[in-house]
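Exercise 3.2. Students should predict the tertiary structure of the chain below and write it as structure tokens, then compare their answer with the key that follows.

Predict this chain's 3D structure.
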Amino acid sequence: MKKLFFTLLAFAFIIACSKTEESKPEDGNQQTSINQEAPKPVVKQRYEIKSGIILYNAPMGAKQELYFDDYGAKEVFITSIDLGIAKSKTTEIRIDGFNYKFEDDKTEGIKTKWFTNDFDYSKADKSLMEKYKVKELGSETIDGKECKKYSAEFGSTPITTWIWKNIMVKSITNFSGKDMIIEATKIEETSVDPKMFELPSGVTFKEM
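Answer key:
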């Protein structure tokens, strides 16, 4: 149950926050085309502000935290889940083209290539707009931030996303008729402690 929840939650956030293109090949090959490519360099201008902290509420009482610097070239993404009888905290540190993922109280983590083929709604060409059925739905203010609102369909999954400075502020992803809502509760344009991006000394990372 918890594993399934993590999968769905991660999928919803990845679509909403990074606006990543659908990476499954059209020929049905189960290995994604994105994994067949060399890692792309981390772009220096993913976001329109240099650094910040964003806190989110997510489905089933989960909390998510995003810390970033260098316009998104460095990120820390934390997911905390409290189901009463089961609690977990997963941290992902994204630096130098790699994603380092580990859980609290674990001495082993996973190192994978961090791909950054972000899908920028505002700059997408016509073919991508048509492929993903992207529609601009005007503007809406969330937590004092004027956000651009978009709808799109990634595969058979419809999603509505609110974007501020190219950062996801809110998303509603429909899975099998049920809405999964992720929404920012705090948006702060501020410096981030450089220690946030340091790998923990007590964790060994296995490269995948």
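Discussion points: The longest helix spans residues 2-18. Residues 1-38 have pLDDT under 50 and may be disordered.
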